[in-house]
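Re: the multi-chain job from yesterday

Posting the exact lines I submitted so nobody has to dig through the queue logs.
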Amino acid sequence: MNQNIPEKWKSLYDAVLEGNAAAATAAVDAAIEANESPQTLVDEYMIPAMDDVGEKFEQNEYFVPELLISARAMKAALTKIQPLLTASGSQPKGRVALGTVKGDLHDIGKNLVAAMLEGGGFEVIDLGVDVDPDKFIDTARASKVDIIAMSALLTTTMPSMKTTIEALKAAGVRDGLKIMIGGAPITQEFADEIGADAYGDNASTAVSIARSLVAS
Amino acid sequence: MNQNIPEKWKSLYDAVLEGNAAAATAAVDAAIEANESPQTLVDEYMIPAMDDVGEKFEQNEYFVPELLISARAMKAALTKIQPLLTASGSQPKGRVALGTVKGDLHDIGKNLVAAMLEGGGFEVIDLGVDVDPDKFIDTARASKVDIIAMSALLTTTMPSMKTTIEALKAAGVRDGLKIMIGGAPITQEFADEIGADAYGDNASTAVSIARSLVAS
Amino acid sequence: MPRSLAVHSLDQFLFGRAPHPVRCGHGLVIGAGSVVPEINFTLPTIDVNADSWAEVCRQYGQMMDTVLARAVHLSVPALLVEFETVPPMTHNPDWGFEITGILAERCLRAHEKHGIAVALRVTPNDTREFNRPPLLRRGEHWEQMLRFFEGAGKAGADLLAIESTGGKEVCDDALVNADLRQVVFALGVLGARDMRFLWEHIVSRCRAGGVVPSGDTACGFANTAMTLADKGMIPKVFAAMVRVISVPRSLVAYEAGAIGPSKDCAYEGPYMKAIAGVPISMEGRTASCAHFSPLGNIAQAVCDCWSNESVANVRLLSGYAPEVSMEQLAYDCRLTNTALADSDAGARTLRDWLAVSDAVHDPQAYVLRPDVVLEIAGDLMEADTPYERTRRAARKTWSVLRDAAADGTLRLDSRETRWLERLGPAADALPDSESELFESILSELPEGSFLPAEYGL
Amino acid sequence: MPRSLAVHSLDQFLFGRAPHPVRCGHGLVIGAGSVVPEINFTLPTIDVNADSWAEVCRQYGQMMDTVLARAVHLSVPALLVEFETVPPMTHNPDWGFEITGILAERCLRAHEKHGIAVALRVTPNDTREFNRPPLLRRGEHWEQMLRFFEGAGKAGADLLAIESTGGKEVCDDALVNADLRQVVFALGVLGARDMRFLWEHIVSRCRAGGVVPSGDTACGFANTAMTLADKGMIPKVFAAMVRVISVPRSLVAYEAGAIGPSKDCAYEGPYMKAIAGVPISMEGRTASCAHFSPLGNIAQAVCDCWSNESVANVRLLSGYAPEVSMEQLAYDCRLTNTALADSDAGARTLRDWLAVSDAVHDPQAYVLRPDVVLEIAGDLMEADTPYERTRRAARKTWSVLRDAAADGTLRLDSRETRWLERLGPAADALPDSESELFESILSELPEGSFLPAEYGL
Ligand SMILES: [Zn+2]
Ligand SMILES: [Zn+2]
Ligand SMILES: [Zn+2]
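And the result, structure tokens for all chains:
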């Protein structure tokens, strides 16, 4: 647990931690009114709150539904803050395009990763399921994407990950971004083999992996 | 079963089939005495007998001990015939150097393959167990070897097969010979991956594999 | 619709014996006095396309050969083989039929040569969800599925099954949010309605083609919940409720003419057997190659087929993984069948050990205890419609779990207890009528989450 | 030497309960009233050398982590972990000790955090056979093995075991030739003599190091025979005789001070338990990942630990193979322990079902039937020396199999029957004395097949 949350806007931290969206947006309003820096609110209250939520999940105190409620409170607060951040020239943590690969329809893991990443301050472009390599390429070209995240749950769709990475290379967009992959049959060995930059074995580690990818 | 064994020296065929070494050598003596061609004895009586022994094994009529008794009868007869064959300028079916790879001590499968190959008319150089790549190379250089056969029974010694093939390449002797591999954890996929020419999943298929390798 | 259960007493609720046995394939009878292994296998990592097709065929042939050889080697008297297609084989039914033929031919040969009783169950994919939101009653995917149902028998299938997914588009999110109301809607309203439509089509095609319309599973719903619970993502008490909530939906297949065995991954199977009397396939500890579960032993308690769920054709130290599964299933069935051959009392003793050994550890196991199954099944069959039964399933399961936790026959940690307390009010708040629930859900779900017309709504 | 058996009656011959339980590790007691899972795992395809060492350590750490997590998840109360080294780790004991430390530390942490009773059994290789013919009492390999025995306790081992191989250099050929006399010589003379030498060394080192000297196995002999028989290479009746012939040899370890549990792959274990009263580890259907066997159920009948033999760390659909094995073992042990908790009569019922379900199908299973074990064990303990016991083992087993085949309690096909008829005279022809056999074998084996001095001959 983060011990040293400043008292000043601790109500914002608490609101996110408890998953109270109304209280979170109210706290943001009050802080902005008092001329607090939006970046400070994000970095010193909201993200620490989401980190602590993740910690509670890891420690078997929270279940995912509780974590999603916090992520929604986080998102509500971010929606208020985003225009101010943009105006002040600050960037989101990073932009992630994610999808389940061609031929595969599994939603849940991908959706959880999307929610976790948004809760962690990332901007997420969800491409859905059964995503064609071209769609990943088009997205990488059209938006400044930092990370492409792919999911597959079948041994027969795992090869689509490789195909997609090769297509990204062929299209000349591979070098500008990082690729993370996950899903039940995926292993670190497979990630290495197909040239992905990272592998996550569950949704809750996705945020820390994404952070280290954009930092590197 | 071979139906059309000529009556003339059928006693030789029967002796090998029944694993009677004394009768086999006696039959060889009689045939040579009668000026029969040694190559005919091998091709039309002895090898068909061993093929039928193999067939009986495949059909669950014989066990390996019975097959080995026949192989010993075959070998006894061949020992008589070999000098005559050499004198007449004919060659053995082929020469196989075989061994269990570096780090691995498993004997049985390798020994069975050796016995089967000898029974099938091959000349066999048994290098033993825990065989260093250099020993394979030296043997390939010193004798005109057609096939190198390698065995491994451990997941941790399988990589020695790859190392050995690479060493044979580096020594410049790989191209002149064929490589067959086997052992419990080995698969066709693994054989393909490391560049072996053939994979056998049991000792009784070794002869037909070796024959097709020398024919190709 | 009969309100009484097909299984009249706990004493008659046994593995290997179902009120209405199913005859199929080459001499196979299921539920007639012994437990039959059901072997499943799937491709290792490979892209299924025209280029890889020869290798795909080789893989299936090799898997079937090794599995049959092992079954014969272990004197397995009777075997059910399941071929679950991968989506390209449903998109292109001819591919699915080709593999079906490869497997069926080997089954026939093994039967003729070794006398093993054997049947082939084929399970095409429910590819309707390739549209998002799914088109359930029209479109390319549905047309190809119909083609598959029609042609499977000629291709060599003895039984047809499916893991249908109507309502999953709502259920997925509901599960990760542990939203009981939405799960009840997804299964008790959407799922049940789609099952009625789908299974009437399947049954008519099967009857025309001489194929056994076997069964369905709430796999995409309740097993997803189980897997999420196993990973610590959602409460086990919630997953246990989802399991029972799936019962009225899965029952629709049998009301529409399916005769069993239910799909192996349908852990709601014991309820199907209790209510409809059909033989059931179940999977437990020997399916841990496919997924972990808290039901390793109890799943076997009243099974008629015993399955490994599915295993990819990877190499293990002894041989290929499908052979390994075959051997494990063979031994497990030897044990249950030895107990059955001993005496009914003996079989009941083994059944109860299997059940007791798991039930206290997990609410998902607890709701499969044979006595609990009969109690809850009796309660939900007091109602006449899928929705009303589903509502009863939620309420009754909740109260059963609460009582079990209170008297210690079920152990729950504090996080689970906290959630059990929350779920009671949620169950009580379920509206009386399907239409009332539909109206309120419509307003809370994002536009386009599902297409009401696809459910006749 | 006591001629009476440690297990006095069939009623007392049960799984989970041994006359002399073993206490070891963090709160673990084996044979004291419940069956304990024994989990084993090994590396996937990898060359073990200095370059790959970091990856090797990571693999072992990951395997131990996933296995312990699954055990805790399933509320497994007690667990035995076996670490069987690969030869480079015995050649270089420091490598073996490093992995031992990695595993031991995780076991301790799991015990402290979750209360699971757990112990680590370490099994170095018998690398003496790297010399051909083997040097058994001298040389580099033997020195390193001694170093391993001495240092294992400090490195974190709670128990030490070995799969010793003295006599194997003669046995291998004898097996494929189905030569009974030579097998008797390899096990009853060479093997028994080497066991005496080896185990006196192991026991003294273990006592000095505070480590439990657990047990040995005739794996390289009788399991080789079983595997050859499974592949149709040698007769099953011969393999069954080899199994019992290995008993006097394996017994030497316990006479020399080993206290159990026997090694999992020692299917002669039931004889060890009957005669010496030590708890035994066994492996059956849950070890089919490692090797197939005709003993899937019967192996469990009187086991105290229940093992998966070994599984490589490959990925399956659910997770890694070691986790899968852990889950399967956990459920199997839940079942036996539920029966034990029910009543002694209940446990006997389950024991008998496990035994009966396999015994009729294969002579190798038949000789493990608890009643047959007691009958044969009693007979061979009438003799005082390993050779005389071995000769009795061959003769008695043959007559037991002949009677069983005659009265139909054992089913044999015609090829097996033909071999059974051959093996009787071979057993009868075994000479009265060890020295007589030694002299005649010396003259028939090629020079240098084995070194008599290494056996004190
Ligand atoms: Zn399923
Ligand atoms: Zn072993
Ligand atoms: Zn072992």
